[in-house]
C-alpha cells in the first residue's frame, strides 16, 4: 500500500498567493512551545509515568469525540470497551475494540477527530498507512510496541510535544495529590490545576450535600451558613493557588448573573440544606455565585473562565448507564448581553479581573460577544470550543469576531482535551488555520505581512500567556 503522508499545505487556501503567505507564517510559529491552559488530562499519568495500556485505551476509550460518532452509527458503547457507571466493562479485548474502530474509521472523514487522528498516527507514531479494516491488527501491534518504549512514556511525550504549561481541570474538593507528587518528583514540567466549583455551586447536583460536607472537612469547618460556605470556597481557591492554579472554570447552563443580598442568599442556602429548592432557586443561586466568583477573582487574581450553553447528558439512557462525559452534550442557544450585564457592570471595568467567555452558540460571535469583548476591559473571548474546535469553526470564529473585537481581545487557543496525544494535533490545526486567516488578510491588503507575523506569534503564544497570567 502507498505510504500515507500528510500534505505539508493542509488546511491552507488553494489560492497559491494566499497559500504561500500562510506557509511562511506557519513555518515561523509551528515550533513554538505549546501552552495548554484548559484541558482534562489526568495528572496521574505523569505521576506513575507508566506505559499507556494499549492503543484502544489511549485513543478511543477516553475520547467522547470518537465514540459518540461510532455510537451515532448504531455501535453500542459496550462493544467499544466503555465502562459503565460502576466501572465494569463487557469487552476488554483491546484488539477486538481496535478492529471495530478500524472497520469504521471512514466515518471520521472531514471531521476534527479524523484530522487529529491522522496527525497522531502519522506524526506522533510514524504510521505510514491510513487505518482500515485490513491493517488494523498490524497498526495496533505497532502502536502497542511503541507505547512500551521509553520514548512513548507520558513524561517523554510531554517533553517531545514541547508543552510549556499544561492545566488540568479539578473539582474544588480535589486533594491535588497528583500535582504535589509531580512537583516533589523533581521533574521539570509545569502542570497546574484549575479550580472548578460547579459541584458546589449547582444546587441541582444530587450529591451537593456530600460535596458540601467534603468542603467542610477540607477546610476544617462545619458549613451551616452561606457566609461559612463562601469562606470555605475562598480557602480552597487559596489552596489551589498555592499549588500553581491561575484560573477557575465554570460550566454553567446559562451565563445569567444576579447579585443577591446576603440575607436573601442565606435564606436560599438554608432552603438548599433542607432539600427544599425549586429550579428557579437553583438558577438564581448559580447566577449569584457567578457574581461571587467574579468578586473573589478580583481579590485573588485567578482568571475566570465561563463555559455556558451545553445541555449536558441529553441522552438519559446513556447517562443512566454510563454516567457523565459520554458524548451526550448538545449546544444550546445562549444570550449574553442581558445575562452578563449585572456582572460586567459590577466587575467588567476592574483591571484586576480577567473573564474569558466561551460559547457553543456561533451565531453569537458577531452579534453579542465581539461587541462585549470589544468594550469591557475585563472580558476576553475564548477560542472556538468543543463542537466548533475544527478547521471551519476556527475560521468562522476569526471571521466573525475580528472586525469588532480585534485579535487582542481573544486569548489564543486551548485544546480542552482528555486525550493526551491529541494535544499537538489540535494545536497544529489552530496554528495552520490562524496562519491561513492572516494570509488572507495580507493578500487582501487589510494588514501587512509584518503585522501578520506579529499577530501570528501572539495568537500562538503571547496572548494565552498574558490572559492566563503565565
Give short descriptive properties of this protein.
470 residues, alpha/beta, TIM Barrel, uronate isomerase, domain 2, chain A, 2 domains, 4-stranded parallel beta sheet, 3-stranded parallel beta sheet, 20 helices, 11 strands
What can you see in these coordinates?
The chain is of the alpha/beta class. The protein folds into two domains: 16-50 and 164-467, Metal-dependent hydrolases (TIM Barrel, Alpha-Beta Barrel), CATH 3.20.20; 51-152, uronate isomerase, domain 2, chain A (Orthogonal Bundle), CATH 1.10.2020.10. It has 20 helices and eleven strands. The chain has helices at residues 16-29, 44-48, 55-60, 64-72, 94-103, 112-124, 136-147, 154-160, 177-184, 198-201, 208-219, 226-242, 262-273, 279-300, 316-322, 341-347, 364-373, 391-405, 423-443, 449-467; strands spanning 34-36, 163-167, 170-171, 191-192, 195-196, 247-250, 303-306, 310-311, 330-331, 355-357, 379-381. Strands 6-7-10-11 form a four-stranded parallel β-sheet, covered by helices on one side. The longest helix is centred in the middle third of the chain and has 22 residues, at 279-300. It is globular, with a radius of gyration of 23 Å. The mean pLDDT is 96.
Give a topology summary:
Blueprint: H1 16-29, E1 34-36, H2 44-48, H3 55-60, H4 64-72, H5 94-103, H6 112-124, H7 136-147, H8 154-160, E2 163-167, E3 170-171, H9 177-184, E4 191-192, E5 195-196, H10 198-201, H11 208-219, H12 226-242, E6 247-250, H13 262-273, H14 279-300, E7 303-306, E8 310-311, H15 316-322, E9 330-331, H16 341-347, E10 355-357, H17 364-373, E11 379-381, H18 391-405, H19 423-443, H20 449-467
Parallel strand pairs: 1-2, 2-4, 3-5, 6-7, 7-10, 10-11
Antiparallel strand pairs: 8-9
Amino acid at each position: 500500500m502507498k505510504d500515507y503522508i500528510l500534505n505539508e499545505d493542509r488546511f491552507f487556501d488553494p489560492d497559491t498567493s494566499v497559500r504561500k503567505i500562510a506557509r511562511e507564517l506557519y513555518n515561523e510559529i509551528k515550533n513554538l512551545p505549546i501552552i495548554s491552559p484548559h484541558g482534562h488530562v489526568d495528572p496521574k499519568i505523569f505521576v506513575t509515568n507508566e506505559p499507556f495500556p494499549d492503543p484502544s485505551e489511549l485513543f478511543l476509550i477516553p475520547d467522547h469525540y470518537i465514540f459518540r460518532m461510532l455510537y451515532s452509527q448504531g455501535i453500542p458503547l459496550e462493544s467499544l470497551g466503555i465502562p459503565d457507571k460502576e466501572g465494569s466493562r463487557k469487552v476488554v479485548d483491546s484488539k477486538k475494540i481496535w478492529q471495530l474502530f478500524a472497520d469504521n474509521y471512514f466515518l471520521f472523514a472531514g471531521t476534527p477527530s479524523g484530522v487529529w487522528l491522522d496527525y497522531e498516527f502519522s506524526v506522533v507514531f510514524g504510521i505510514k498507512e491510513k487505518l482500515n479494516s485490513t491493517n488494523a491488527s498490524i497498526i495496533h501491534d505497532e502502536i502497542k510496541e511503541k507505547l512500551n518504549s521509553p520514548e512513548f512514556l507520558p513524561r517523554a511525550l510531554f517533553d517531545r510535544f514541547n508543552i510549556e504549561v499544561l492545566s488540568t481541570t479539578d473539582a474544588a474538593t480535589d486533594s491535588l495529590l497528583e500535582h504535589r507528587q509531580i512537583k516533589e518528583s523533581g521533574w521539570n514540567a509545569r502542570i497546574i490545576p484549575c479550580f472548578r466549583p460547579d459541584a458546589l455551586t449547582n444546587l441541582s447536583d444530587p450529591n451537593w450535600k456530600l460535596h458540601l460536607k467534603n468542603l467542610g472537612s477540607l477546610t476544617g469547618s462545619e458549613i451551616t451558613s452561606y457566609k461559612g460556605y463562601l469562606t470555605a470556597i475562598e480557602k480552597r481557591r487559596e489552596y489551589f493557588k498555592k499549588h500553581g492554579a491561575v484560573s477557575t472554570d465554570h460550566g454553567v447552563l446559562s451565563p445569567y448573573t444576579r447579585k443577591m443580598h446576603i440575607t436573601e442568599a442565606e435564606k436560599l442556602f438554608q432552603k438548599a440544606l433542607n432539600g427544599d429548592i425549586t429550579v428557579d432557586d437553583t438558577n438564581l443561586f448559580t447566577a449569584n455565585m457567578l457574581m461571587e466568583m467574579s468578586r473573589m477573582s478580583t481579590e485573588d487574581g485567578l482568571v475566570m473562565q465561563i463555559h455556558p450553553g451545553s445541555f449536558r447528558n441529553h441522552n438519559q439512557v446513556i447517562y443512566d448507564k454510563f454516567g457523565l462525559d459520554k458524548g451526550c452534550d448538545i449546544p444550546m442557544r445562549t444570550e449574553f448581553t442581558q445575562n452578563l450585564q449585572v456582572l460586567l457592570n459590577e466587575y467588567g471595568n476592574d483591571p484586576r479581573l480577567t473573564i474569558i467567555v466561551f460559547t457553543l452558540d456561533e451565531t453569537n460571535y458577531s452579534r453579542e460577544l465581539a461587541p462585549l469583548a470589544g468594550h469591557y476591559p475585563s472580558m476576553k473571548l475564548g477560542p472556538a470550543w468543543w463542537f466548533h474546535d475544527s478547521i471551519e469553526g476556527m475560521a468562522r470564529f476569526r471571521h466573525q469576531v475580528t472586525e469588532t473585537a480585534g485579535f487582542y481581545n481573544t486569548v489564543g487557543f486551548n485544546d480542552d482535551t482528555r486525550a493526551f496525544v491529541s494535544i499537538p494535533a489540535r494545536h497544529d490545526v489552530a496554528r495552520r488555520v490562524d496562519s491561513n486567516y492572516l494570509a488572507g488578510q495580507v493578500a487582501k491588503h487589510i494588514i501587512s505581512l509584518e503585522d501578520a507575523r506579529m499577530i501570528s506569534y501572539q495568537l500562538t503564544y503571547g496572548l494565552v500567556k498574558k490572559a492566563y497570567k503565565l
